[in-house]
Amino acid sequence: MRISSKHIGKILIDDIYSVIGNLLLRKGTILTKKHIESLQNHEYYFEPSSLIEQPNHLSKDYFQHVKGIYQESVSAFQTIFEKLETQKMPPLEELHQMLTPLVDKLVDDPVFIRYIEQVKSYDNYTYSHSLNVGIYSSLIGKILGLEREKIKLLGQMGLFHDVGKLLIDKNILQKPGRLTESEWNEIQKHTTFGYELLRRNKEIDPHILQGALLHHERLDGSGYPTRLKHEKIPYFVQILSVADMYDALSSERSYRPKQNLFVTTKILVQEASFNRLNPAIVYPFINYILSNHIRDEVVLNNGKNAEIIFIHADEPHLPIIKIDDHFIDLRKHKDIEILDFAN
Fold first, then answer.
1. Could you report the per-residue pLDDT of 71-81, keeping only the tens digit for each?
2. pTM
3. 8 Å CB contact between 53 and 7
4. Nearest by Cα to 219 from 204, 205, 235
5. Would you call 204 exposed, middle or buried from its count of C-beta atoms within 10 A (0-12, 13-18, 19+)?
6. End-to-end Cα distance, the chain
7. CB-CB contact of 38 with 67 (8 Å)
8. Could you give the dihedral angle defined by the CA atoms of residues 279, 251, 27 and 307, in that order, rounded to the nearest 10 degrees?
9. Whole-angstrom Cα distance, residue 164 to residue 185?
10. How far apart are CA 270 and CA 289, in angstroms?
């Protein structure tokens, strides 16, 4: 069957590729007039079963449902972390069972990640950040094709990576202005505080201890607390560091507003190019995130609006865009930048 305007508003249940193998639209995309016109230009034909009606989960009611689940999870983590302050370690399997449905949703339903991004807030930041980093670490594990048990472990590392902040003065953690040198030195202690707190439990996986202690280490040796370099930083900790930075940048903080997706991905790419984060982790993650926005309209630094057409696997932050009837590869036009999504 040939695609037509009667399919506007329906949802793809499979990725769509061009005849030469380029991703045109990711599954989960809600078809718009622009999508239809583009697919018609490619003379795209499809099976009727490839499209479904918009389910209820894309409604405002479902957004409130997701928001409720997320906020309940944050509250649950707050309770769990407060138990840690009394030296009682919560059951890790119980945490995993709470985290897994959110991770599965993120991978299986590309629309779901947009809901998560929208419901994040600064309230209970330490707890929501831990939940988010657990989700993103697990997601990166899935993107990289890791085994189920390793994905599970990454989620647990994310959940506990910042537990040491429970022992840091909240006035410092929530300070809206610039930290003094002594305050910054105090903040950095959360890595060793978290390690010492968690290692009281003799059954805890050593990876979780490594995550709490080393998630601020950087490949070039510029991190803390031990200035480890390259392969001395465990691979799973390198994954955790990417998830941690992504969520920190894209969340509201006491001292700055959250960064939009394009600023966040640009910073992650810079960190990879400066040999601080592992590019073999950063690029697949960014590719996945940005591929969910193919056909979305964006604003450029030249004041024009454009449409994201194609995400390069090796340089996902520099996609091919379309302005009117012109296609522009941002890899070849470094003077043009995407500022944000169009309203």
1. 777 777 777 77
2. 0.79
3. no
4. 235
5. middle
6. 33
7. no
8. -80
9. 14
10. 17
- Helix residue spans in 86-202 (DSSP H): 92-108, 112-119, 125-143, 148-160, 170-173, 181-188, 190-198
Burial of 136 (0-12, 13-18, 19+ CB in 10 A): buried
Contact 138, 121 (CB under 8 A): no
Cα separation values, 27 from 23, 60, 170, 233, Å: 10, 21, 43, 35
- Cα distances (angstroms) measured from residue 171 to each of 123, 130, 187, 324: 15, 19, 11, 51
Task: Label residue 183 exposed, middle or buried (CB < 10 Å: 0-12, 13-18, 19+).
Answer: middle
Which amino acid is present at 137?
A: S
Q: What is the pLDDT of residues 111-148, one digit of tens each?
A: 666 666 666 655 556 678 888 898 899 889 989 999 98
Picking from 276, 298, 101, 85, the residue whose alpha carbon sits closest to that of residue 198 is 85
